[in-house]
Amino acid sequence: MLDFGFDKLALIGAVALIVIGPEKLPRVARTVGTLLGKAQRYVADVKAEVNRSIELEELQKMKSQFETAARDVEQSVRQEVDSATQVFDQTWRDVTGEGSSYEAASAIAPPPPEYRHPKKNWRLKRGATPLWFKQQAGVRRHTQSGAARVARFRPPGLRK
Quick one: where's region Disordered (predicted)? Predict the structure, then answer.
């Protein structure tokens, strides 16, 4: 950045006082201060944006490293499972004299049934209950306000 010492700032102030004049100098100084503040905020925003983009690039690199590590682990596990399956199939063929166990099991077992929603309708089930049972069980059939409920259960001598 520019290196301004006290002597250079005093020289600039004296020239500004002569050129601009003592009446307009405070207004110009405020304007210059406002513009310098805006410039500093803009520079700070640009620095923050650059730092965010650098952090984002680092996170993307880290993500790609984790993805490759996960793929490598998956491939190694898959290879181990395949080798174990081959050894098991070979042993099964040696013991039974048949084809592979997976082929035999898939030929015998039917495919699992597809999931079906039970289609329960609680309104229908609730509507099928007789009214006498609802009254006996104390199930409310109609919505009633609190004041109406109090008035309903008030003793006969206190009713209005």
Answer: 137-160
